[in-house]
Amino acid sequence: MPDRSDHTQATWRQSLQGWLWVAPALLFLVVFVYGPALTNIRFSMFSFSAMSLDWDFVGFDNYLRLWNDPKFTTALANNAIYAAISVTCQVGIALVLAAVLEARVFPDFSANLFRTALFLPSILPVVVVGLVWQLLLTPTTGLIDQILWETGLASWSKAWLGEPDTAIFAVIFVSQWQWTGYIMALFMVAIRAVPRDLYEAMEIDGASGVQQFWHITVPGVRETILIVTIITILGSLKVFDIVWVMTAGGPNHSSEVLGTMMYRAAFRDDMVGYSSTIATVIFFIALTIGLVQIKLQKDR
Description:
Layout: H1 4-43, E1 46-47, E2 56-57, H2 61-67, H3 70-102, H4 108-119, H5 126-136, H6 143-150, H7 167-192, H8 196-204, H9 209-220, H10 222-238, H11 241-246, H12 258-268, H13 272-299
Antiparallel strand pairs: 1-2
Helix pairs in contact: 1-13, 3-7, 3-10, 4-7, 10-13, 12-13
């Protein structure tokens, strides 16, 4: 009869080995993720500046101030608009482009050319993309305005980055131009994993390309759609660089997002506690989205 103490000791040894294997990852998470997050939440309870030793405990006053700040409402709305358009382009349009290119509608040379042209912007630095498009969108002297004048569409000419009604949409357009091709490449890899027999069977049954897309391609890459959607939404929530390079949140805070608002509070206005409050809000929104993703994956 086996000794129960030996079995318990073996189980304990296996458990210890498992913890030792995951210890480096746990240490990394504690030091670089959970620790800073908790520290940031603590900072959000104080009012202080980077160059001062005086910390005034204010509790939740920073959160109340943020809630009543009209710039926060604008920034949150811009992030929501950014996410909605990004999901439409980087998930919807990217999936359609990937399906068309993988359907072998075009000759191989043309398909490869389209793939390269669409993917190329994603390997460019964001700062370079922002500066180049800033020049292209410059009123009167920019290439976009010159094209509009030459094609008889002068009425469309405007200061795209200088008007409150168009600034955030101009920035979002540039972001979609850069990243849609990258998401398209991810979808192309997922589509290639779908068995070709399914397409051939539906083609024999007389199904059109659109029917094959809805009944084979979309269900076949459903997991990729979910993951890419979550990544896109989180990226839209944390966006900072392209907005800061092109508009810095202007004009008159009309293109402000949570990232630029946080940066301005910390490094321009020297309100570290208030900036930590904004960072905490971003963290909890991202955490909620992550938990929703886990719930959806478990349900599936």
